[in-house]
Amino acid sequence: MTPELTALTLAAILQIVQFILFALPANLELGTRYTGGSRDYAPDKPMSKRTARLQRALNNHFEGLILFGIAATVITVSDQSSTLTAACAYAYLIARILYIPAYAYGLNPWRSVIWAVGFMSTLIMLMVALF
């Protein structure tokens, strides 16, 4: 397996971990009657700031993972894996790991800086694939 696909697999596992990090407090705060229901209506009480941030970080990872998945797949399928693309793949993964506590604890502007590292890593991989 290429380093890019290894990083992609680890990023997918991170997505599962993020879901658990969000789901546990959300179930405690909102109750399983709401979270296990159809959610046709807003909950009786809002989530805490930290739990809401964990949800937004989870959603953000879904968005970033789509582009990173494309980049890792194209690099691998086109046999363009290199030291640069491997470094970018692991930079993306490390940035996504650091993004979780940065968002959960409201570490601004570091959250945005960390996000930008992951985004730029993906962009570089896509550019390498094209050129």
Automatic annotation (TrEMBL):
It is found in: Membrane. Its main location: membrane. GO terms for cellular component: membrane. Pfam families: MAPEG. The chain crosses the membrane at residues 6-24, 57-78, 84-105, 112-130. Keywords: Membrane, Transmembrane, Transmembrane helix. Gene3D superfamilies: Membrane associated eicosanoid/glutathione metabolism-like domain. This is Putative MAPEG superfamily protein. It comes from Roseinatronobacter thiooxidans. The lineage of its organism: Bacteria, Pseudomonadati, Pseudomonadota, Alphaproteobacteria, Rhodobacterales.
